[in-house]
Each structure stands twice: as structure tokens, then as C-alpha cells.
């Protein structure tokens, strides 16, 4: 157990990284669009996520009040860019593989702290945990990098007319989901590296003559 303190840190980092991965997947602020036409998008700002697009509008609302309108992306919307659909699948995979990594680490720590000396089982559990953590980190890294690239190059999206969104913004910037995803990547990759670095202690038996 005394040699598993780093793996306990691995579990803590992996847990935080997995939570941040889940948070980034759920929030809508991946790409922040600034639009000139405020007829419908009253605030001039729209948020493009990986599941839906939202904006604030004062239409059909009592004076002094505002309402947030959201349109969920459909699998039939061929105009939605590939990086959004890729983010949906990869982040779901990251959430599952990160959870598997946490499970493997928990069982490895359980065996280590209970004094179970079957080193093959413990080493394999931490090895599997490290593999799952790194896989999860890479699955988050790809959509985060891809969407950040789209933001920096101010790429447009041909939304369907029912979305009431312009095809291109006046300007756009990275939303909160991207830095959250970057932190999640760092923590998951660190967790994986630490987990893979585990070495079962070698005991030397001495005999008295």
C-alpha cells in the first residue's frame, strides 16, 4: 500500500478529468458567435454546442423579459459540420473509457491497500486504467482541437432556415467548453502516464544462517 500513493493521486486526477470531460460535453458554449442582425438573436450572441445551438431573443416575450431558444441538432442535418458530429461520438467514448479507467484504478487500489500480494493482478489493473485514461484523453483532445481550429478560422455553418441562424458570424470565439476540455485532456493524460508508471515493489527474502 505504501507504494500506491501515486496511484491514489492518479485516481484523483482521473476523477476530476472525467468530470470535466462530462461537463464539457453537456454545456452548449463550444463556439460563441457574434452576429450583426439582431432581429431574432436579440443579444447578438449565439452559442453553438455539439448537441444544440442557443440564443437569446426578445420576440414573443413580454417587455423587459428575455427567453433562450435552442435547436437540437438532428442526425438528418447534413449541413452540420463533421467536427460537431465527431465531438458527439468521441466525447461519449471518452466518458465511457474514462469510467472504465476509474473502475480499474479503484480495484487496483483496493487490492493494494488490502495487502493482496498478487502483483500480476494489481499491475494489470493499473495498466488497464492507464490505457483507458490515455484513450479518454485522446478522445477529448481531437474534438477540442478540431473545434478550436474552426473557431480560429471563423468557419461558417449552413444552418437550416428553421434554426434562424446566419450561415456565418461576424466573429466567433472559443466558448467555455474548450478550455474545460483542455484541462480534462491534461488531467486524463497525466492520470494515464502515472498509472502506466506503476511498478510492483520487489521484495527480497533474506535467510538467517
Automatic annotation (TrEMBL):
Signal peptide: none annotated. GO terms for cellular component: bicellular tight junction; plasma membrane. Pfam families: Claudin_2. The chain crosses the membrane at residues 6-28, 40-59, 84-109, 121-146, 176-200. The keyword Glycosyltransferase does not apply. Belongs to the claudin family. This is CLD34 protein. It comes from Syrrhaptes paradoxus.
Amino acid at each position: 500500500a505504501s507504494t500506491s500513493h501515486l496511484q491514489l493521486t492518479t485516481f484523483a486526477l482521473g476523477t476530476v478529468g472525467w468530470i470535466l470531460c462530462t461537463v464539457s460535453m453537456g454545456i452548449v458554449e463550444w463556439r460563441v458567435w457574434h452576429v450583426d442582425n439582431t432581429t431574432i438573436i436579440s443579444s447578438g450572441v449565439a452559442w453553438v454546442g455539439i448537441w444544440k445551438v442557443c440564443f437569446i431573443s426578445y420576440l414573443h416575450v413580454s417587455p423587459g423579459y428575455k427567453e433562450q431558444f435552442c435547436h437540437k441538432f438532428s442526425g438528418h442535418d447534413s449541413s452540420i459540420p463533421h467536427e460537431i458530429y465527431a465531438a458527439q461520438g468521441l466525447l461519449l467514448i471518452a466518458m465511457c473509457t474514462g469510467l472504465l479507467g476509474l473502475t480499474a484504478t479503484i480495484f487496483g487500489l483496493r487490492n493494494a491497500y488490502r495487502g493482496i500480494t498478487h502483483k500480476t493482478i494489481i499491475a494489470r489493473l493499473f495498466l488497464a486504467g492507464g490505457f483507458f485514461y490515455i484513450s479518454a484523453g485522446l478522445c477529448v483532445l481531437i474534438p477540442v482541437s478540431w473545434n478550436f481550429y474552426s473557431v480560429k478560422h471563423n468557419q461558417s455553418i449552413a444552418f437550416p432556415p428553421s434554426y434562424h441562424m446566419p450561415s456565418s458570424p461576424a466573429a466567433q470565439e472559443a466558448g467555455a467548453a474548450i478550455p474545460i476540455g483542455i484541462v480534462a485532456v491534461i488531467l486524463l493524460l497525466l492520470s494515464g502516464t502515472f498509472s502506466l508508471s506503476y511498478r510492483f515493489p520487489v521484495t527480497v527474502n533474506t535467510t538467517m544462517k
